[in-house]
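Here is an idea for our session: we take a single protein and study its fold together. Once you have written the record down, we can walk along the chain together.
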Amino acid sequence: MLLIIVTLAYSCKSISATNSNTKKNNSKSISENKSEEDNTTYFKATGNEPFWELKIGKEQIIFTSLIKGKESIAFATAKPIRAMDANVKTYKVKNEKSSAVISIQQIECQNSMSGIISPYKVSLEIKNNTDSNTQKIEGCGKYITDYRLHDIWVLEELNGFKVFITDFQKELPRIEIHAEENKFMGFGGCNSISGSLFFENDLLRFNNITSTLMACPENNKEDKFVKTLQNTTSYSIKNNRLTLSNPSGKLVVFKKVD
């Protein structure tokens, strides 16, 4: 009898442990999938009357709405057509059942219900292939800054050369990026610096850079560092390193710090 009780207790413990591990694995999987989705979707837009949402990702463009017959439509991502005289991108996409023309214009846009201001106005013309009428709707959107940028980064290389504290004053330059607010702050090597980020998919710019006005030694490389930030147009993240570049090549390398 004692043996049976021990066996049952062990079995219950094993099942409990298995269920616990399964829950942990499921939670981990959901978290990983969410991070992957967040990193894949780089532009989101919404509109009202009727409500609709648009997500543009690296592989898919997904449109969901309360419009009858257009509740959920997925398209393969296409390269946008850029206007020559304005910051306007147009996507022309289609699948077996539907087609759409999506225009994204860089102009302030206010949500008609919430009043929230977004940096882009979005216009859609969407239709089912069996319909003769096109649904025309408008809304507001914004690019989703890569969440991996949100961290503190300390300078490691500048214009192809490793940097040392002696190149600056007291400590190495660093930047702290706040991806959600598209802002950054930090230390330039002599002065405190801050500014804003402009992000569009893989395009990254450091804008409106300001600094304190402390006089710096002649051998301090702060000016060169700030200039590289101003000249940045692209980035990559690998092995806890943030590399900033432009069409001429690599500009700086930062190391992630906790």
About this structure: The two ends are 56 Å apart (CA to CA). The chain is about 20% helix and 50% strand.
